[in-house]
Amino acid sequence: MTQQRLLKGLQFFAVVVFTAAAIVLIQRLGVAQLRSQVEQWGVWAPVGIFLLRFTSVVIPALPGTAYAILAGGLLGFNQGVAVICCADICSCSLSFWLSRRYGRNLVKRLVGEGFMYRIDTFSQRHLERNFFLMTGCLMTGFFDFVCYGVGLTKAPWGRFIPALVISIALSNPPFVALGAGILEGGTRLLVFALLGVFGLAVVTYFVQRRDATA
Q: Residue 102's closest CA among 148, 146, 69, 139?
């Protein structure tokens, strides 16, 4: 439990530092100049965000939500959604495959023993029998753990991939829109983002409630 609390504390600290640095950078450069700087980086800006998001999913101890917000702020909504969704499809598929191919021992090395209880919890919930429950779990903030957990079950690729694609299509746009709306001052994007985040919170609540009563 001590290791788990330490990792949670480091994760929270990383998110705070990352957010503070982004705010300072925006205040110093301004949105227009920041976007201009990003354009000068060319393809390396989306590639960098792709790698950050990809790594944060394969190694769940790293924060991932901040990168979705960052993608919206730096790349805009359309490109930001494309980058984050591609990163999630690739990383989640890899997590599922690693878990299915090499089993629990490799997963423990990647995520640490302190986080294995989450993966074991998802693997023991018989998600492979309920497509909608699997999709709902993949829409929560623990989707990276869910991918490893489902990989430890007998769920086939043909059932996992559609659930993954649906969950990514529904859960990523609100967070990317939040970043784009904050920096661009777009009221519609912010309203969409807040409604989407609220919807995801509702899904998470019902998934956790079902788990508690199971």
A: 148
- Amino acid at site 46: P
State how far the Cα of 117 lies from the Cα of 160, in Å rounded to an integer.
Answer: 21
> Whole-angstrom Cα distance, residue 102 to residue 80?
32
Tokens at 132, concatenated: 């909608």
Contact between 142 and 134 (Cβ < 8 Å): no
Beta carbons of 107 and 74 less than 8 angstroms apart: no
Q: Which of 25-34, 36-45, 139-148 has the highest mean pLDDT?
A: 139-148
Give residue for tokens 């980086």: 41
Q: Alpha-carbon distance 57 to 137, whole Å? A: 15
Which of residues 184 and 66 earns the better pLDDT score?
66
Angstrom distance (rounded) from CA 193 to CA 175: 6
Encoded tokens for 31: 């949105």
Closest CA to 70 of 43, 46, 42: 46
Measuring CA to CA, how many Å separate 170 from each of 99, 151, 166, 180, 186?
24, 22, 6, 17, 20
**Can you tell me which residue has the tokens 């990276």?**
144
**What is 15-71 written as a DSSP string?**
HHHHHHHHHHHHHHH-HHHHHHHHHHHTTHHHHHHHHHHHHHHHSTTS--HHHHHHH
- What single DSSP character describes residue 140? S
| Rounded mean pLDDT, 5-13 | 55
The answer to whether the CB of 87 falls within 8 A of the CB of 50 is yes
Question: How far apart (Å, rounded) are the C-alpha atoms in residues 111 and 57?
Answer: 10
